[in-house]
Amino acid sequence: MVSVRVVRPGLMTSVQDPGRWGYEHLGVAVAGVLDDYAAVWANRLLDNPPQAAVLELTISGPELVVESSGYLALAGADLSATIGGRPWNPGEVQRVETGETIRFGARRRGARAYMAFPGGIDVPPVLGSRATDVLLGIGGVEGRPLRVGDVVTALRSGGAPRIAGWETCLHRRRLRVLPGVRRDRFPAEAWAKLVTGEFRVSLHSDAMGLRLSGPPIPSVPGDAISEGMAIGAIECPPSGELLVLLKNRGTLGGYPALAHVIRADWPALAQLVPGELVFFDPVTPEAAYTAWRQQQSWIEHGATLPRDIPIRAPIAGGVDRNDGEGRLLSAPGDVVAAGQPILDIISLGQRMTVTSPVFGILLDLVRDGSWVEAGDEIATIRGWDDGGTD
User: Fold this and answer.
1) In terms of Cα–Cα distance, which of 24, 209, 228, 32 is closest to 133?
2) pLDDT score at 184
3) How far apart are the first and last CA of the chain?
4) Are 360 and 382 in contact (CB under 8 A)?
5) Which of 346, 345, 340, 344 minimizes the C-alpha distance to 362?
6) Alpha-carbon distance 113 to 59, whole Å?
7) What are the tens digits of pLDDT across the range 156-170?
8) Spatial CB neighbours of 204, under 8 Å, sequence gap ≥ 6
9) pLDDT averaged over the chain?
10) Radius of gyration of the chain (CA)
């Protein structure tokens, strides 16, 4: 069975699985993988069950030496991985041989990558999960991130070279939100500032939550009784910054939640890094449910390789990569959904929005302020058709 030894642990490398669900009433956080979409893809590539434990690699990956040969899968962020000097791209299964070194270099896209082993990682479960909870010191390898000298071993042998038929990293800056359960306690201007403002991920973000700086959001009196806090809740502390709760958050809290990031965009939260811009778009509960079902369909049925799709200008005019309120619509490297706006073309005083025809990665985008003629290529999307077929 394949195993690797840690030479350098990286910034934050830990054993994780979907998390420790069912114990929040006892004060035990869910923890587990922050990007469950990418982690499921890593496991799917090796025909593992979705609950199999994986390595979660954060921003700066580890250096590992292969102790026993076998197959490994990688998904999620692109951290410039190599095996014995040859490239290892996210969404690939590769065979590693005894003595080879796995290294990670510069972060190219996203924040967290996931390395899967055949059958999962062999560590004992605690409260039904192998996930590392560093606050409680349980799960994974002694309840802590990996250290130099740790050996990580698969539960079984198996695997074969394979490439994902779908993008495994949902890195996007525009996050969809629903009104929070306490929105009625906020002044009306709070919601308006949230859905029209431009926010930036703070250096003080971690696995408990993302801190966002931006236009101050009016808070409400802190006289509410503490209540259960949902993953994805957008809290508004008195400081005026925003706090978006992730899976390691406390189970109870007192800050009111103005909004909630929809379930389908939790993976995108996990792939944001300090300094990146974030925008919030309101959606209906029906749209949130549809997005979640579509995402599950990508995992279940995504089986085709992507193709580069040119997007052409429908009319002549000037390019505006911001929406009518001045917020950036998209940028190269973003993951875009089918129907998502990517830029506007302004002609004769009218604004026409150009949307993506497919789910994919925005590779190239015409320069803001450019003049284009009808039929000019204005963007390229490396995309997948929604049904998983060409």
Assistant:
1) 32
2) 84
3) 37
4) yes
5) 340
6) 8
7) 999 998 888 778 998
8) 211
9) 90
10) 22
Q: In angstroms, rounded to a whole number, what is the distance separating the alpha carbons of residues 168 and 93?
A: 13
User: Residue written as tokens 């003049």?
Assistant: 371
User: Would you state the structure tokens that stand for residue 50, as one six-digit string?
Assistant: 């979705």
Token pair 């994919």 is at which residue?
Answer: 360
Interatomic CA distance for residues 172 and 312, integer angstroms: 22
CA separation for the pair 41, 118 (Å, rounded)? 13
DSSP 8-state secondary structure symbol assigned to residue 265: G
| Burial of residue 263 (number of CB atoms within 10 Å: 0-12, 13-18, 19+) | middle
Classify 326 in phi/psi space as left (phi over 0), alpha (psi -120 to 50) or beta. left
C-alpha–C-alpha distance, residues 251 and 249, integer Å: 6
Buried b (16+ CB within 10 A) or exposed e, 283-292: beeeebeebe
CB-hemisphere CA count at 13 Å for 157? 4
Domains observed in the chain = 3-163 (no CATH), 174-290 (2.40.100.10), 307-384 (2.40.50.100)
Here the tokens at position 227 are 């209540």
319 forms beta bridges with 345
Q: Of 293, 244, 238, whose CA–CA distance to 264 is shortest?
A: 293
The string of pLDDT tens digits covering residues 211-264 is 999 998 887 766 667 778 899 999 988 887 899 999 988 888 768 889 999 999
Write out pLDDT tens, residues 54-75. 999 999 999 999 999 999 999 9
* DSSP conformation class of 218: P
User: CB of 192 within 8 A of CB of 222?
Assistant: no
Taking 3-state DSSP, the helix, strand and coil percentages for the chain, each rounded to the nearest 5, stand at 15, 40, 50
359-388 pLDDT, tens digit per residue, is 788 888 999 999 999 999 999 998 765 433
Q: Alpha-carbon distance 359 to 299, whole Å?
A: 13
* CB-CB neighbours of 119 under 10 Å: 21
Burial class (CB in 10 A: 0-12, 13-18, 19+), 199: buried
Beta carbons of 258 and 192 less than 8 angstroms apart = no
Q: Name residue, tokens 């990569």.
A: 321
The DSSP symbol for 388 reads S
